[in-house]
Records
---
Amino acid sequence: MKIEYGHSILEHQLPKDRKILIVVAEPLYEQIHSLLHDHDAHLVLPPSMEESELETFAGQLPPGEWVLGIGGGVCMDAAKYIAWKNSLVLWQAPSIVSVDAAVTETIGIRREGIVRYIGTIWPERVLVDIDLIQSAPKHINRAGSGDILSIHTALYDWKLAAEITGEPYYPEVAGQSKQLLERISRASSDIYNVTSAGIKELMNLYVAEVDLCQQMGNSRPEEGSEHFWAYHVEYLTGQSYIHGELVALGILLMSALQENELPRIKAMIDSLGIRYRPEDLRLSHKTLIDSLVGAKTFVQNHDLPFSILHHLSIDEKEAERLIECIYEL
Ligand SMILES: [Zn+2]
């Protein structure tokens, strides 16, 4: 996988003599259409991420030599799915640094509303167009830090799983993962301001994190109860959220539950400018309570890896306490 950064890199790097199938996010459709008007490109909007719909969608597409995803996480995953299913070469061009999907090989889809990872495909090239990314609302790019900050709660869960279930735990990998938290902290002002240095560091952090997960063969170094809780919210509401914002709220709630340095991680989230307040995310108090109280049943029913949510039960009183914690500091 080759990651290239540049200004207006899309127009310059895409060859004109190749057929390209482009999965593009709806708000960018017109912009990309006129940008690539002299390329042999066929633009499509991503369908829903439900596996059955994706399968039908991929089967009906015109033949292309390559697939290029341009957009956020949904476009990256839809492009991966199409390239994997139709055996095409994959390129990715994230329009926001909102999730690590552009630099991962796993394909995240939904099966009856639940996130599942099926198949793997690496992008041959990742084109990071600085201008395109900087043209997105800042809060969306800042939210990208959520998938690095989740290391904080994920490492706690991994260690807990090792103590209780005997799952293998590698302190060296955990230590390297922790270093990524220190790196993001040092880059916080660049990431907050979405400078080109901030964009690059966030992409580099994703790559480093994905590498650690590769070594482990699972997502223990970065995914734990904060993600599982977020999946539960999506399951309950059927809504989609800016991933890093929902995960950031999950990190705060789970840090409170884990009694795991809540003030420190909250200060980091604030300095990176990630939105997490339930009112910003349009999450009702009832959804918050239900998502916490029902979390244990959800993680058990869906066979998610062991975490604090398996270990502790949350009643309504405890859920209220956790929610209060995020407002207190
Ligand atoms: Zn994530």
---
Amino acid sequence: MKKILQSKDTSLSFEFYPPRTEQGWDNLLQNIEKLMPLHPSSVSVTYGAGGSARTQTNKLVLRIHEESRVPVVPHQTCVAATRAEVRNIMQQYQNVGVHNVLALRGDPPVGEDNWQPPADGFKYAVDLVRFIRAEFPDTSIGVAGFPEGHPEMPNRLLEIQYLKEKVDAGADYIVTQLFFDNRDFHDFCARCRLAGIEVPIVAGIMPLRNRKGMERMAELAAGARFPAELLRRVEEAPDEAAVERVGLDWATEQVRDLLEHKVSGVHFYTLNSAEPTLEIFSRLGLVKP
Ligand SMILES: Cc1cc2nc3c(=O)[nH]c(=O)nc-3n(C[C@H](O)[C@H](O)[C@H](O)COP(=O)(O)OP(=O)(O)OC[C@H]3O[C@@H](n4cnc5c(N)ncnc54)[C@H](O)[C@@H]3O)c2cc1C
């Protein structure tokens, strides 16, 4: 990943999550097949909160790794993990030749205000980055960044310092939370550079697909400021199909602007669907022969 992001071309990557049902797996594998001809520079796989969801991450990572030539980036959270558990998972990836990870803290269980990590665990993502860098020095490590700010940290100056700590601890690049206003991303990059953060910053993009999805994103709090112009267009949309077209138009223009600004990378949160990403690539002429 480090090498890919050092290229002068904008890297284009996709994110998937491990499905919970057989049908979800069938659907995802079909969609991965549709997306591979777009030649993503990498794909990433999220890490779930529950026990079985975690083994599913491993299963999906290995499957993509074995069946395609695309570099895979497993996400790894540390919110409830011990060092031994993380070491074990990372070792499994190393053994099969997966040398990438997106190192995240994850979210504490809902309602646990006084949550503490396990005794032999990690409090923040920076501790996980330090651990992986020390134990698996050849791994390319990405970390999360929040153009609109992280909901737990109202102090935006401190937040960038904490992000810098993750980079100083060994992170090679940053992937951002989704955003709908590119000005937030460009300003975030400028603030990072002012703070001395020099690593590539990859923009996270998720096309809006329907009104329900919009409400869900608003509830998730991190990364869902809808610009007034987008809200107006959604409000004027006569039905859900029209909302989907609004979302695609909006995301396409976001990606066009990011490419024009020659950003290091654009990361598509696919939600395991192929169509929106295929459509954006086609509209922007990004489909390679
Ligand atoms: C690209 C991307 C992918 C993601 N993938 C997943 C996934 O697969 N699975 C999943 O469960 N979640 C995922 N998340 C969500 C993420 O786990 C949560 O947003 C989490 O709340 C923050 O994770 P972090 O790695 O940024 O944590 P951290 O960097 O640890 O930051 C968490 C909070 O603590 C603050 N902080 C950091 N250091 C300190 C310090 N020393 N003292 C005080 N405060 C500090 C930060 O400012 C921030 O508010 C993803 C997020 C992004 C952007």
